Structures are given as C-alpha cells and as structure tokens.
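Weekly modeling sync, notes
Attendees: S.R. (lead), two postdocs, one rotation student

Agenda item 3: backlog of single-chain predictions. S.R. asked that every request posted to the team notebook include the full sequence so nobody has to chase files. The rotation student volunteered to paste the first one in as an example of the format we agreed on. Action items at the bottom.

Example entry:
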Amino acid sequence: MPIPLILVVDTIRTLKLLGNWSKSRIVGRRRPLIAVFSLTHYCNFYCPMCPFGDSDKLGQIAVAKKNDLKTEEWKLIFDKVSKYCIWAIIEGGEPTSRSDFMELVKYIHNLKMPITVITNCSHIDKINLDELKKYIQFMTCSIDSVFESSYCKIRGVTTPMYNRVVDNLKLLTNHDIPHYFNSVITKYNTEEFIDQTYFERAMELGSNAVSLTFVEDRSDVNYSMLPDPRTMTKVCESILEYRKNHSSPRIMIPNQYFEQIIEHGRTVFDECGVWKSVFVNANGNVLVPCWKFNSPENTYNLLERSIDEIWEAPQWDIARTCHDCKVLGCIWYSSQPVTTFARNYMSGLSKMINMHNNKNT
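Predicted structure, as returned to the notebook:
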C-alpha cells in the first residue's frame, strides 16, 4: 500500500526542523525539539506525587478558571512552538477536562505536529474517540498500578473511579486508539514490578507497551514516595530480567536508565537537557530552566516573548551544573543525544505506516 501523504509531509517537516536545530547547535544556540503543553491547572485526581493532586479541588477549579489560557491564546502559543518542535505532548492537570480539548488537539494536528496525549483516562468516555484518533498518534494512560488497592492509594481515588478507568481502557482498545501505560514507580507499587505481575495485567487491560520510571520527590512537601535503595535495585533488576525474557508488553524506557540506577543509585548525565523541550504551563509561562527554579526572574510568558528570546536567556546555564533530579525519567531522556529523539520519532512514524498498511490489507 502507498504511504499516506500526511506521513510523507510529517517526515519532511521533521527532517527540516531537525536540520534547523542542528544548525542552531553548531553556532551555540539552544532550541527546543519537543513541546509539552500543560493545558490546565485542574485535575480530578489526588496523586500525592503531583502538584495537581491538591485536595482542595474547589480552589483548584477557581485557579484554573482564573489562570488557564483561553482557547485562542493556546492557539497563538501552538503557532509559535510549531516552528521549532517535532512533537507535541498534551498533558495537564487533566487535559481532557477542558471543554475545548478536541478543538485544541485538532488545531495542533493541523499544524503538522504529531501528538501524544497524557491522561488519567477518567473522562475519555465523554470524548468522541473515533474523531480523536484522526488527530493523535498515541495516548499515554497514567496507570501507576494495575491493581485496585494500590491504584486507589497512589491516585487518591475510590473503587468506582478505578472501575471507570478500567472500562475506559477497554474503550480505547475497542476504538483502535494506539495507547500505552505509563507508571510512576513509588513505594506503594513496587511489588507488582518485582513479581512482574504488572506486565501480565497491563496486557489484560489492553496495553502492549509500558513506560516505567521512578517518582522524583517534590521539593514543596515534607514526605517522600521514593522506594528505599534496596527496593529500587530489586525493581530495576526485575524489569531488566522481564525485558530479556519477554517481548510483550514492550518496555519503552531503555535498559540504560535501570542499569544506571542499579550501579549509581540514580541516573547519570553530563548536562540536563530540559532546554530540548519547551514546557508551557497552563498560564503560558515557561520556567527557565525548569520548575525547580520557579521565581519571577526565571519566568517568561510565551504569549509575550518569542522562543528565540526565551532560549537565549542566561538562566539556561544552570542546567550545565544542576544534577538535582536523580531518577526523573523525562529529565534523563531529554539529556540523551538528539539522535535518540530522532530515532524514536522515526520509529513512531514507522509504526504508524505499519498500522495504516495493516488496516488496508
């Protein structure tokens, strides 16, 4: 079957942007490759490892109404970012809680940016899934535990919510929406990775791929959700063993991540790669270099500034020496060579082409 024109256009666009990115690097300019859009300050879950897990949901709704960007404001930001980035990640808060969620997804799609949506899957039964799958490449389902008791404990929800999420996962499968599970490993869900039951249950719930990284403790709370070092080692060893002996579900994080934690007790990188991603908060702010340095002098609003202005800011130099994030998966990944981004992007396109061909044979 011929390759769809849209995939050809996406590939050409990606190669062009990667070329521009490489030229910028040669002359010493940093620029982003991946766009992360945090669409809202609101989430209906209570995860203690996440700042959006605030128990005061009425207060959170008020903050979202006051500070979340309007539809047209987000579109202006999408326009700016699309000139640089090869992929868009939509998250929140809970992005599907926005009434204009589908409109925003469609707008990004029309800018030729492939899209991943990160969601807790609690609202997707209210979305036209046949329409959604026209616009996105993947949906990332935040499923920290595949068992009711630990899932509810980690996510701060009740059994009815767990059952609703499970039902919604079935909807994704029934509507042929490509999706995978993402689990944040905390001290509350280590056992299912050590005994490897997470993987079997994930496949039962319709996921043929999983992404697994340890929690990075928040600096604004006085508790830790990170497992003790001995348990972390056991988790890593079990995940590596499972990958060696099983091909499904596919584990999306490279072996190196787990091997470094076993050897060093943390991940290792020369320079934090946060500048490779533009993370836009729900109010349009970009924190330079990251959320750990949340202060007025490190805050730039993307409605008011250009990408070039923000990425020339001197504060990015903090990333050269900061190694505070010990096991945060996205920081480790963004710190890898740009060829890793390109390889994964092209792998994603290859999967899309194969899916297209399989549907037409």
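Discussion: group reviewed the output briefly. The chain has 14 helices and ten strands.
Action items: rotation student to repeat for the remaining queue; S.R. to check formatting next week.
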